[in-house]
Amino acid sequence: MKILYISIPKYIPSGVVSVTQYLVEGVKNYGFDVRLVSCWPGTGYYDYKNYCYDSTKETAPLTASQIAEVAREFRPDIIHVHTMGVAESWHGGINLIKETAGNPVLVYTLHTPKQAKYDLPTIEMCNISDVVITLSESHKLRLGNLYPDIRGKIVAIHNFPEPTFFELSKSKEVDEYARQFVDHYTPKNEKIILYIGRVEELKGLKFLFLAFKNILLKYPSTKLLLVGSFGGAEERKFIQDCGISDKVIDTNIVFINWVRNDILIAAYYRMLFLDGKVNGVVVTPIAYRALMVFMNAIAMKSPAVTFGEIDDSRLATASSLLAHPRNIFNCIDDIFSAKPSEIKRRIDNSYELVKNTYSLENYIEKHVELYERLLKSKKPRGDKNESGDESNLDKIFNELLDEGGELDRVFEQFLNEDDGSLDSEFESILNQ
Question: Strands 318-320, 253-256: parallel, antiparallel or unpaired by DSSP?
């Protein structure tokens, strides 16, 4: 089997890059012939001039016509587009690549339904793809709710924790940094709420700040750590608009720039449950990177809550189907008030479930299974065979997809968010 992966340059600060790399290397181990090319599909998340240059002295992003030449030579059975999004100008390029390659099966991984809701080019990409992969069942339901016409070709393959964090969960170096963080951020045994992601006007994040107001009524010294926030004027205004006073912002909220060092990020997770003591919780009220943040937190054996973005409520230390200020408050309060032994029991259960069920190995295996089933027939999706029956590919889709479930209205209320990353050194963090 030949698979051509189209992704983004690996020097772009995005989890898409690492996920694609894990997938490509894993699929290679199954003996498939794999090519990976980088493009710039123009998603609008990052400015081309700032990010798309050969900063690592590696091959620059290819144009669609250049990728088409690669496809002409390689003749893939499957093209898998694994980017953050697509631009209107990229559609002609995808069609050119498909035609040049002999119209292989086209697979597209959509990292957040929000892209499809607000981005017309991404909607079109979903339409022309044979398969659309989402990162969880909730994303699958959300996307199918938005666009019933493509519901039949959506497949959910759950996101996974980065393997690095399973290893770092055993690191003494991480423990030492975590103890320094505890001493720095909680000198008086304050509780911590950790949020990793951009701070901007999103419903789920607004709910977090509204819940934080109530948390302060019960736990007045609680600190909210915002990793990925600069504390700029727009961010502060958004927080103020949520009813948080300047005094609370200056006293109870800590703005921390992006941290790209895995050891330091692991230390933030570890500080929340350290030496048998519950110091805080990771809260992910919005999706996209929140899925990876949440899974990494579980890999680090940290208390973590999420809202509607996971397929198995047993994963969360505390969970709710709906991101709402009341639910967020209840989940945080549940962890803050529980005995450490109870939190440890929940964490251990979640850890085993993540390691055994939602692992990188499982993620790769599900992709391989999908690829192999798709290649039972190379007929374009929707074609009829000579007898007028469903094509083989359609039959395979019917085997793959669960079409019997009721769509859950609560997923309409979830907003999904992407973020970028910037360097931040340990010393500068502690000096804040």
Answer: unpaired
